[in-house]
């Protein structure tokens, strides 16, 4: 990994140089401030996928720390992470830079939905050397809270119910931070006022000023908040920094309440290894770069929030994709193989379409196209019998693809973080309620992710 002052920034500042940056970092150190280097961001991809790249990452970050005076590193990898080898890299970096090394993370909300997610695994793997996880509670859409309910971004409940997942999942309270945009213009969605951030911290630390979600215990040791970004905050009179920083000093002290045993079932899905790309120029701010896309719909129907259910997506190696042939019977589903050449029978979000390649079987497949505000969802409502168990199956190709349907117990879904460029089968079993006569089946990707493909969707 390499780093230098961006040429565009240098020009905009009248010739700002590496030497100027080093001088500024030294000044910040002189007044008791820390500066860390952030790697990744929305468009940056760092590949740490084996022991060699782990060692290269650790050594290169350490050299940059020595050259510029950085106090640590912020992991903001939004395009996939390998928990095993990033753990190796950060432990090697810690052995080089201790005892003062700062390690922070800036995952998206989807990355911290359960302890089985790669980002969450990484945080737990390095818990003894981890400083804080500043989850990005913005540009997210709706997500499950620790109580299994779905919460919309841009609310206190969204902050508290999702932070609860990390607090119950094994992180110390002082390792859990709330990351929010400084202004409405700083992100596509998820902004709350600094007062709401303070209320969320009160709710988590002492059980006061809560919204509708009330945690089953409190965590007095919570101390974290992050904003994107200080530059945006400057346009608003530093409202976030002034309001939240002072409030953090008023939070209760002492030993945190005992956390209940983790109630989240680990997700069985490993994170796909990111592909190499040129190293980005990390931000001086430890805050992550948000997606510039508009706010996702806060409540897609059915909910796109990943379920904490432990049901696993079958491995693509367990069910190899057959050679192209006629699409299998879709059972109760209509046009499940999209062999009509269009999405007839389905209700799909634009710009979803039917394509001739890649397909799982037959001549056509669905190409679902997520945007910054949609998940590329297609739904179909079919007639079913009450008190009956059905099997819903689909072959999918892509990243963060979800298959779901509604049954007696509500939404049932499964998903895959990535299929490695091949088709993989997703399957769920859904039992209808005593008076249920219709079922809505849905397939979708995730906000701002690449196009996914789906084929041979069946309901039997």
Tell me about this structure:
GO terms for molecular function: chitin binding; endochitinase activity. Belongs to the glycosyl hydrolase 18 family. This is chitinase. InterPro entries: CenC_carb-bd, Chitinase_II/V-like_cat, Galactose-bd-like_sf, GH, Glyco_hydro18_cat, Glyco_hydro_18_chit_AS, Glycosyl_Hydrlase18_Chitinase. With 460 residues, the chain is α/β, with parallel strands linked by helices. It folds into two domains: 243 residues, Glycosidases (TIM Barrel, Alpha-Beta Barrel), CATH 3.20.20; 113 residues, Jelly Rolls. 22% of the residues lie in helices and 21% in strands. The strands form four sheets. The chain has a six-stranded parallel beta sheet.
What attributes does this structure have?
single chain, alpha/beta, TIM Barrel, Jelly Rolls, six-stranded parallel beta sheet, five-stranded antiparallel beta sheet
């Amino acid at each position: 990994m390499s780093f230098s002052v961006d040429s565009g920034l240098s020009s905009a500042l009248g010739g700002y140089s590496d030497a100027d940056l080093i001088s500024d970092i030294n000044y910040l150190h002189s007044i008791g401030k820390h500066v860390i280097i952030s790697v990744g961001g929305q468009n940056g991809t760092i590949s740490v996928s084996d022991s060699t790249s782990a060692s290269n990452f650790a050594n290169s970050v350490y050299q940059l720390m020595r050259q510029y005076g950085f106090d640590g590193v912020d992991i903001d990898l939004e395009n996939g992470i390998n928990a095993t080898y990033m753990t190796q890299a950060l432990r090697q970096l810690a052995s080089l830079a201790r005892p003062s090394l700062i390690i922070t993370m800036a995952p998206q909300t989807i990355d911290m939905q359960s302890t089985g997610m790669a980002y969450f695994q990484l945080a737990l793997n390095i818990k003894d050397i981890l400083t804080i996880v500043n989850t990005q509670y913005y540009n997210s859409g709706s997500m499950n809270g620790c109580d299994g309910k779905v919460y919309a971004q841009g609310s206190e409940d969204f902050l508290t119910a999702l932070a609860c997942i990390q607090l119950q999942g094994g992180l110390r309270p002082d390792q859990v931070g709330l990351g929010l945009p400084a202004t409405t213009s700083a992100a596509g969605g998820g902004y709350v006022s600094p007062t709401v951030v303070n209320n969320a911290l009160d709710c988590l630390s002492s059980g006061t000023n809560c919204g509708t979600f009330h945690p089953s215990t409190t965590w007095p040791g919570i101390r974290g908040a992050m904003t994107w970004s200080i530059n945006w905050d400057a346009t608003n009179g530093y409202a976030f920094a002034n309001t939240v920083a002072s409030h953090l000093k008023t939070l209760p002290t002492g030993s945190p309440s005992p956390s209940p045993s983790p109630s989240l079932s680990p997700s069985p899905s490993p994170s796909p290894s990111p592909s190499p790309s040129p190293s980005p120029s990390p931000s001086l701010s430890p805050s992550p770069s948000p997606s510039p896309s508009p706010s996702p719909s806060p409540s897609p129907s059915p909910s796109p929030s990943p379920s904490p259910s432990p049901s696993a997506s079958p491995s693509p190696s367990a069910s190899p994709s057959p050679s192209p042939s006629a699409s299998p019977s879709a059972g109760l589903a209509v046009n499940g193989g999209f062999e009509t050449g269009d999405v007839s029978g389905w209700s799909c979000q634009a710009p979803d379409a039917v394509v001739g390649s890649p397909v799982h079987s037959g001549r056509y497949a669905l190409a679902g196209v997520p945007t910054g505000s949609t998940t590329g969802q297609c739904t179909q409502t079919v007639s079913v019998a009450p008190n009956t168990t059905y099997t819903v199956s689909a072959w999918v190709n892509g990243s963060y693809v979800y298959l779901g349907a509604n049954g007696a117990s509500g939404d049932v879904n499964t998903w895959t973080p990535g299929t490695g460029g091949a088709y993989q089968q997703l399957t769920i079993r859904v039992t209808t309620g005593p008076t249920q006569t219709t079922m809505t089946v849905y397939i979708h990707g995730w906000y701002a992710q690449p196009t996914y493909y789906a084929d041979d969707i069946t309901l039997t």
